[in-house]
Amino acid sequence: MEEMQEEVNKKNDEKVQKRKEDIIKQKNTKFDKALQSAKQKFKEEKKEATSQVFDQIMNEQTKEMKFEGKLIYSSHTNDCNMLCEEIEMALCDLTEAFVGFDMEWPVSYRVGKEDKTALIQICTAPDTCYLFHISCMGCIPSNLKSLLLNKHIKKVGVNIESDIWKLERDFDIHVIDIIKNSMEDIGVLANKILGCKENWSLEGLVKHLFNHKINKDPILRKGDWSKYPLSEEQKCYAATDAYVSYKVYEKLVNM
């Protein structure tokens, strides 16, 4: 009997020992998995941090493209009419006349409400840009309307069609002829020439074609464009968008 009891005790001890070993093994396995997971997470976070630092350094080293030429700012109807007449006369003599085009308006935070166009930017040459502050004029002056409708002067920009349609909603101007005859979306043009199907932004085109960046400060972009006078920062921001559109189109058609 004693021998049998010893055998039973021995087996029980072995079971207890085996159970202890299994528990230790399970704990070690969980610890190893947790350690491996922590190492992987640390590795990924380190990689992401390194990537962010690299992107920041590259962004700081990337040259900014901005307009630094002659900027003509007009806020009066008569002045605008005179300037637009001069622009038409100068450009109509060119074989293929085009202008960089953009618009600005205050951001509305009311649902279903969009403020009227406040500013129209027209870049006629790499060193010349016009800002027409039409919110100060109350309408689109007749000669500015004539310039926009002139089928011999192509208006170029990113998503320009939506801007042109906004002019019709905001003012008494029928834009279908502009869309049909004298408008070029440089994002669509880029896809044709580069053989791709990208949804281009102006920043993306500048980065791809020139390896430059442009200022898209949200505070400036969402500022009050109807307020007179515009700040120097607003003027530079607005002129740059039209200027960059001009340069992108010029680059694309010469590729």
Outline the structure in words:
This protein is of the alpha/beta class and 255 residues long. It has two domains: 1-61; 70-253, Nucleotidyltransferase, domain 5, CATH 3.30.420.10. It contains nine helices and six strands. A six-stranded mixed beta sheet has the order 1-4-3-2-5-6. Helix 2 (77-91) runs parallel beside helix 3, helix 6 (186-194) runs parallel beside helix 9 and helix 7 packs across helix 9 (232-253). The protein is elongated and about 120 Å long. The model has no long low-confidence stretch (mean pLDDT 88). InterPro entries: 3'-5'_exonuclease_dom (IPR002562), 3-5_Exonuclease_domain (IPR051132), RNaseH-like_sf (IPR012337), RNaseH_sf (IPR036397). It is found in: Nucleus.
Mean pLDDT: 88
Oligomer: single chain
- CATH topology call of the largest domain: Nucleotidyltransferase, domain 5
Radius of gyration: 32 Å
Helix percentage range: 55-70%
Under the CATH scheme, which class of the largest domain? Alpha Beta
What's the number of domains?
2
Largest sheet: 6 strands, mixed
Write the layout of secondary structure elements.
Blueprint: H1 2-61, E1 70-74, H2 77-91, E2 97-104, E3 119-125, E4 128-132, H3 142-149, E5 153-157, H4 160-170, H5 176-181, E6 183-185, H6 186-194, H7 202-210, H8 218-221, H9 232-253
Parallel strand pairs: 1-4, 2-5, 5-6
Antiparallel strand pairs: 2-3, 3-4
Helix pairs in contact: 2-3, 6-9, 7-9
Subcellular location: Nucleus
Biased composition (Basic and acidic residues): 7-22
Region (Disordered): 1-22
